[in-house]
Amino acid sequence: MTVFDALDLAIAALVLGVAAWTIAAREMFSAVVGYVAYGLLLAIVWVRLYAPDVALTEAAIGGGVTGVLLVVASKRLGRLPQPEAGPGLGLKLAAAGLAALVAGLIAAALLYLPDPAPSLAPEADRHLAQTGLGNAVTAVLIAYRSFDTMLEKVVLVLAVVGVWSVAPDRFWGGRPAPLGPASPDPALVFLARVLAPVGLVIGVQIFWVGADEPGGAFQGGAILAAMAMIVMMARLMRPPRIGSRRLRLALIAGPAVFLVVGLAGPLIAGSFFAYPAGFAKPLILFIEAFMVLSIAATLPLLVAGPPNGEGEP
Amino acid sequence: MSAALDVFSLLAIGAGVFFFVAGTVALVRFPDSLSRLHALTKADNLGLGLVVIGLLPRAGSPLAALKLVVLWALVQVSSATVAQLIGGALRRRDAET
């Protein structure tokens, strides 16, 4: 057993331990903290599996944005009147059974893979030069399977519409409630002032290098979204009015530009969602730039929730 | 020369790991939240700083070395802030009880 085997075993044991702890945690906030730690450990697992792109996404989304989402949700739930009794034993057992079934099916699918496992990786690598990109993951996302990625971004917009749709009619078009406490800690304000400009540069940089190295629109956009959330938590910026036209344009910019370029495919490249030869990379970066904007706008709005009257002065 | 650099890296990273272990032991063993916080922030900042110093000679280019230093600075800023926030929350909680 090499040092790396021991490291992998230790990480796997840690992931399972933190997962079990998260399920067993009695308090909602403890469970959220456990879930964030779990997400960060998973990011390390992806690094060990030589998937730095996935690791970046897991750290930004699984550890970061989902963590904030859950913390905010658990705080709001805590303010509601609590039901007398929690879920009954039968419901808990049913949920556990379903979860075990899903986990078992995934494990079985993995264990019964033929050896060597089928892989499109050599194929993806062979045609990489045609896209002008250096990162095969970005090529899969924005070139080979561009239609899927476009639809994923549409799903994000739908998620925002879903959150907004639970707003009471009289608050429609207004601002969601502020994220942080009424008088934020001066240390948090300082952090927001110092970190946000740096994070802005790092987010754009991660999007930009994503063409050739690990990174990309989603990871970069998630970092920009995190910066927006910190600035809102420090009350340096209010959540935007959901009726704002500029905000709505930013939300749909990514999928819309993607769709327009995809529909122009038959005219300029001979088929839907195809890029003209030799011009693929600039087009891909063009689409990705708008996707960064949409992701950076979507994630903070999901965290901010629907307008409920608290956001108005 | 390279052997000397290797020894330097080994010593610096080893010292960094020592601070991480010390901080973790303190996190488990110290009696109250504020002392645990104190031990953790000091050990983490110093530990990560030493690991970064140890890695500097092994960075391929000046740019990569600069990125390592920036990484350390960012962790400094955020861990110092988080320590302040947790400390403030603890003080408010103690004032309530």
Number of strands of chain B: 0
The end-to-end span of chain A amounts to: 63 Å
Mean pLDDT of chain B: 88
Instruction: Show the largest interface.
Output: A-B, 8 and 8 residues
Question: How would you describe the overall organization of this protein?
Answer:
Chain A has 3 domains: 1-78, no CATH class; 86-118; 120-313, no CATH class. In chain A, 71% of the residues lie in helices and 0% in strands. Chain A has 12 helices and no strands. In chain A, helix 7 crosses helix 8 and helix 11 (245-268) runs antiparallel to helix 12 (280-304). Chain A is globular, with a radius of gyration of 22 Å. The model of chain A has no long low-confidence stretch (mean pLDDT 89). Chain B has one domain (2-96). Chain B is built from 3 helices and no strands. Chain B has helices at residues 2-29, 33-55, 62-96. Chain B is elongated, with a radius of gyration of 17 Å. Chain B starts with a helix and ends with a helix. The model of chain B has no long low-confidence stretch (mean pLDDT 88). The chains are: A mainly alpha (313), B mainly alpha (97). The interface between A and B is small, with 8 and 8 residues. Chain B: InterPro entries: PhaG_MnhG_YufB (IPR005133).
